[in-house]
Design goal:
single chain; 441 residues; alpha/beta; six-stranded mixed sheet
């Protein structure tokens, strides 16, 4: 997905109509002071596609995105996927609390509207972009500064913090939380069922034991009746004894059928108990592993290995084959390929940390997007953490990035000296609570 044109009206700090043509932009900076609406531009793209923005989670927070004092929002995004162009428009009216959208496809006939319901649009976009909302926000909008925090965390004291940062970046935190709740409920459900089966089996055992005693009594009566056949004084008396015996036999047969059913039920309950006990032990193990953070640690280690492999591709390119990642004892280290010297990541210089964290951010984008047609990336750069010497040489790092990627890249910054290094800029200026946009290329 590559943005082509963005039109916004009364969206957050952007009162009135504003327009950005991304067509001439390839490697550019979005520059503005804090609060000028840098993130809002990215959110507008997200809002157009999905009807929601990261800062408000999964809710349709239309009212919260309205410019102060306004009643109507309009956002229009032209974008392309593998060369084919589309347009999506969204609007919201505060007065009647109604939102609407329109979707268009560009083809030889012109701009053709597509009649979608909301759920149909979501399915169409998922098949087109190959990313749902949750993954899209992690793949296209990279938080390089979060990887910097991950790299700078003390290895011993902040091990859990590093795991939390990585799982959050990978989108695993919400999944693990949901998994924990599901496993907890399933564990509780199975435990309750096992207790019920155990209680039922105890009751069945008592009933079967009582039925067997009754069966034994009936058999004894039949034996007594059989002995009396030889002592019958008349034919009528013999017929009466035979009738009584047949009646006892019928009750005996009925009782035996009842016992067989109860024994079958007992067998079924025993089998279910054994199966559920096995399942219960699995959920017990999973529950304990999640409570003890064993499973989250396993996932972190597993994905860190995968992430490292892909990040090494970018780090070697960005550092001109000088640096690469290595995992030692579940921790990320750096190897200087020129000297073969290995060191911990928190010992990296400002410039090296910048390249390392950016390499991890690009790797994360690749890992999460898989085969999705991602043709643009926006990076929250984190230049503010760089030392003065590194910032003076940052153009070298930026050129390395530009030369070694084939995507449209937008870098977000509030720093004037960094922004001036770019020929292509989207400059934001805030005055009297509202921002304006100027595109330079």
């Amino acid at each position: 997905m590559r943005p082509i044109k963005l039109e916004i009206e009364n969206f957050t700090v952007y009162k009135g109509k504003h327009f950005i043509d991304f067509t001439p932009l390839n490697f550019f900076v979005i520059k503005g002071k804090n609060g000028s609406g840098k993130s809002s531009l990215i959110e507008a793209i997200c809002y157009a596609l999905y009807g929601k923005v990261p800062r408000y989670g999964n809710s349709k927070a239309h009212k919260d995105l309205l410019s102060k004092g306004e009643d109507w929002i309009f956002v229009s995004l032209d974008f392309s996927v593998k060369g084919k162009c589309y347009r999506i428009e969204r609007e919201y009216n505060k007065k009647n609390d109604q939102s609407d959208f329109r979707f268009y496809e560009f083809n030889e006939k012109g701009i053709v509207p597509k009649n979608f319901r909301e759920d149909e649009l979501e399915t169409f976009l998922l098949n087109l972009i190959k990313l749902d909302y949750r993954i899209f926000t992690r793949v296209v909008f990279l938080t390089q500064n979060q990887f910097e925090k991950f790299l700078k965390a003390n290895e011993k004291e902040d091990r859990s913090k590093k795991r939390e940062i990585l799982n959050s970046l990978l989108g695993l935190s919400d999944i693990l939380s949901s998994m924990k709740n599901i496993i907890k409920e399933k564990h509780k459900e199975i435990k309750k069922r096992l207790e019920f089966i155990k209680f039922s089996l105890e009751g069945l055992c008592c009933v079967v034991y009582e039925s067997l005693n009754q069966l034994e009594d009936q058999i004894n009566k039949m034996e007594e009746n059989y002995k009396e056949f030889h002592t019958a004084e008349s034919l009528e008396s013999l017929r009466k004894k035979i009738y009584q015996t047949e009646e006892l036999f019928g009750k005996l047969k009925q009782k035996w059928e009842e016992i067989k059913k109860k024994l079958k039920k007992k067998e079924e309950l025993n089998r279910e108990y054994d199966e559920l006990s096995y399942e219960f032990n699995l959920y017990e193990t999973l529950k304990n592993d999640l409570d003890d953070n064993k499973f989250p640690e396993y996932l972190s280690s597993h994905y860190l290995e995968i992430l490292k492999e892909r990040a090494n591709y970018y780090l070697r390119e960005f550092s001109i084959e000088r640096l690469q990642f290595k995992i030692s004892g579940d921790e990320l280290h750096i190897i200087d390929c020129n000297t073969n010297y290995e060191r911990r990541v928190h010992s990296l210089s400002g410039g090296e940390t910048f390249l390392a964290s950016l390499s991890l951010a690009f790797a994360l984008s690749d890992l999460l997007s898989k085969d999705a047609p991602i043709e643009s990336i926006f990076i929250d750069e984190g230049f503010g953490s760089l030392d003065k010497e590194t910032r003076e040489n940052v153009i070298k790092f930026l050129n390395l990035i530009k030369e070694n990627t084939n995507k449209m890249i937008g870098i977000i910054t509030h720093m004037e000296d960094i922004a001036n290094l770019f020929d292509q800029r989207i400059e934001l200026h805030k005055k009297k609570g509202a921002s304006s946009i100027k595109v330079i290329f």
